[in-house]
Specification:
The chain is mostly beta strands and 376 residues long. The chain has 1 helix and 23 strands.
Length: 376
């Protein structure tokens, strides 16, 4: 029983690790041991002595056609297709505190800076991570007209967002874990064409995710830990339901950050999703396996704009979708300190015009290192 519980929590914890280059990946930094990791989209290490630890790494943010790219481009126009992460932490049985930092390159004129505060308490059963993404630039993109001719404008861009995450491990198998994510973002710019012609664009959104894990037990040789997941995202201004600092800048410089002239709502657009997920784990001396089949329901609403010019606004209908997925992690450890990892995700979260199956996968190695004071 305890072995299954340990394996389940370990795999769930490790799966979020990504050299901490994503917005929500810092939550487990303070409990991770020394290691070097190299995967298709990440490279980095964690080193410490059991009390003080540090990390440094890269995570690729390139488009899928160049996944794993860190640098790309020709002489005179080289892009840094990655997030650089660094952090330091203090750990003890009573409390752990960490500070992290991510820098994500968007283009030569704009980057996203993300300071992160981490706090662990109650023997690491309570974990909190608070990242704040900030992107500020006087001229983050080159704007062009319909003919592709550059327009010389003076632009002030600013984006601020956060992805707060809280986890609590109860120690009770019947209801063993709670995760809560809170997301907020706003971004916009003031485009000064002339002294009398100033365009203002602004988008804002808020959302949350909650997961409730229960009935952590074993059935035969398989550990199971089901959970219920609920997501909600809504656009407060404009149509983007998940606004983030620096969004829509990197790959759309010719059509930058289109915000549709600041739409405001009588009824806000939203996405709501509820899923039942069955976490399953199995282990041998060499292989650890984790699987999450899921089935759920998603409702999407495009909103109702505020009336303008006397014309009545159109009220959109809610669209309904049955969501499903199968997420898998495989760990192979021929020796205790070296691990090969494979991840696969198949689901139907596709956009219009794409096949009804979306497949994501990554693979790589982890080398577990001894503590700097000689302890394992």
């Amino acid at each position: 029983m305890m072995f299954a519980v340990t394996v389940s929590l370990l795999i769930t914890s490790v799966s979020a690790f990504g050299m901490y280059g994503d917005r929500d990946s810092w939550i487990d930094f303070l409990v991770h041991g020394n290691q070097f990791r190299a995967r298709m989209d990440q490279l980095g290490f964690v080193l410490g002595n059991g009390t003080i630890k540090g990390t440094f790494g890269f995570r690729s943010q390139a488009v899928p056609t160049t996944i794993g790219s860190i640098l790309s481009g020709e002489t005179g126009k080289v892009d840094l297709d990655t997030t650089i992460s660094a952090g330091i932490g203090y750990t003890s049985d009573i409390i752990g505190v960490g500070l992290g930092y991510n820098y994500t390159y968007q283009n030569a004129r704009l980057g996203v800076h993300t300071p992160v505060l981490m706090i662990n308490a109650l023997n690491n059963n309570l974990r909190i991570a608070v990242p704040v993404q900030i992107a500020v630039s006087k001229n983050p993109f080159n704007k062009v007209d319909d003919s592709g001719i550059p327009i010389n404008t003076e632009t002030d861009y600013m984006g601020i967002s956060t992805d707060v995450q809280i986890r609590y491990y109860t120690g009770i198998d019947a209801f063993n874990q709670i995760r809560v994510y809170f997301r907020y973002g706003q971004a916009g710019y003031k485009n000064k064409i002339t002294d009398d012609n100033i365009e203002n664009y602004f988008a804002q959104s808020v959302g949350f995710q909650a997961r409730f894990y229960f009935l952590n037990t074993t059935v035969g040789n398989v550990g199971i830990n089901p959970f219920v997941r609920v997501d909600f995202n809504t656009a407060l201004v404009e149509e983007n339901k998940t606004v983030r600092a620096g969004d829509a800048i990197k790959y759309n410089e010719g059509n930058p950050f289109v915000l549709n002239n600041k739409k405001e709502w009588d009824k806000n657009p939203y996405d709501v999703k509820a899923e039942f997920v069955l976490g399953m784990s199995a282990s041998s001396d060499i292989v650890n396996f984790y699987l999450e089949p899921s089935l759920g329901y998603k409702a999407s609403y495009k909103g109702k704009e505020k009336s303008s010019g006397g014309a009545p606004a159109t009220d959109s209908k809610i669209s309904h979708t049955l969501s499903w997925g199968a997420y898998t992690e495989l760990y192979i450890r021929p020796v205790q300190d070296l691990e090969w990892y494979f991840e696969m995700d198949v689901n139907n979260s596709t956009t219009t015009g794409q096949p009804p199956v979306k497949f994501n996968a990554t693979t790589g190695i982890t080398w577990y290192l001894p503590s700097l004071n000689g302890a394992q």
